[in-house]
Design a protein that fits this description.
Blueprint: E1 6-12, H1 15-22, E2 27-31, H2 32-36, E3 49-62, H3 66-72, H4 76-86, E4 89-101, E5 105-113, E6 117-119, E7 124-126, H5 129-144, E8 150-157, H6 158-170, E9 175-180, E10 182-183, H7 188-196, H8 200-204, E11 206-207, E12 216-222, E13 231-234, E14 243-250
Parallel strand pairs: 10-11
Antiparallel strand pairs: 1-5, 1-8, 2-5, 2-13, 3-4, 5-12, 6-7, 8-14, 9-12
Length: 256
């Protein structure tokens, strides 16, 4: 995709968060692990998930053909026996809960095509009905699935933002991967296979189809040699040079 053809839209819970992000005094990013703990349905997602297992389970050392055995087996005991008999798998140990994920930090945006937007000195208009409906759904879901009654958004030139942000974060030692999210429903086995094949980008940049209304572009950051924290805060990057406009959004008909 050509970033020059897009705007980024980013939402903030408070005007102060927006101001400090844009003026570069507090560029605050949450980790993948942070989103696992949220109750906010809009933001909660098992970001970077490779495996999530709750309740009784077990770990196998698996070989080619094990996936087919899973489909054919009638129970866990049946799977253990068939895998041992065929030599395609060996049970290693029992588990009660086990999670594996890729850890890093995420900066997320709604992708808005420039061709769909018209600006005047005082207003912004979305030109096509389809794009208006998409953005309206995004706004509605953000408010309905969170505790906030209002949010504060900024629109950025996508290309300029990435140039400023990525240059600044790389100078601080972060490694960066970015791209549009692909929405598809991936099974746990497929995620494990991605990890085995070191296809880490697909793990981080694939989300379930029920999140497709977010039309997300994301920037994923890691810092090698450091343990991932719940969040990071950086400063001194001139984000405001990519800023096109701000807008505040309240659910229609809501008095606050």
């Amino acid at each position: 995709m050509n970033l020059s053809d897009y705007f980024f839209v980013k939402c903030f819970e408070t005007a102060n968060y927006r101001e400090s992000f844009n003026d570069g005094t507090n560029i605050y990013l949450n980790s993948t692990g942070h989103f696992w703990k949220l109750e906010n349905a809009f933001q909660q997602d098992f970001e970077g998930m490779i495996l999530k297992q709750s309740g009784k389970g077990c770990v196998f050392a698996a070989k080619s053909g094990f996936e087919q055995l899973i489909k054919e087996s009638l129970s866990l005991d049946d799977l253990i026996k068939k895998s041992a008999d065929s030599g395609t798998g060996k049970k290693l140990f029992d588990t009660s809960e086990m999670n594996f994920r890729l850890d890093g930090y995420i900066c997320c945006f709604y992708l808005l095509p420039k061709s769909e937007v018209s600006f005047t000195k005082t207003s912004l208009s979305i030109l096509s009905k389809a794009e208006r409906e998409d953005m309206a759904l995004f706004h509605e879901k953000y408010l309905n699935d969170s505790t906030t009654k209002m949010f504060y958004a900024s629109i950025y030139d996508a290309y300029t933002f990435c140039q400023l942000f990525c240059t600044g974060m790389k100078s601080r030692g972060y490694e960066i991967t970015m791209g549009a999210v692909e929405y598809k429903d991936v099974t746990m086995i497929e995620r494990i296979k991605m990890a085995q094949e070191r296809n880490y980008k697909s793990i981080v940049f694939t989300k379930p189809t029920n999140y497709s209304y977010q039309k997300e572009f994301r920037i994923f950051l890691i810092k090698k040699g450091e343990n991932t924290k719940d969040h990071i805060s950086e400063s001194g990057i001139e984000i405001y040079n990519s800023l096109v406009c701000n807008y505040d959004y309240t659910k229609p008909g809501l008095n606050i």
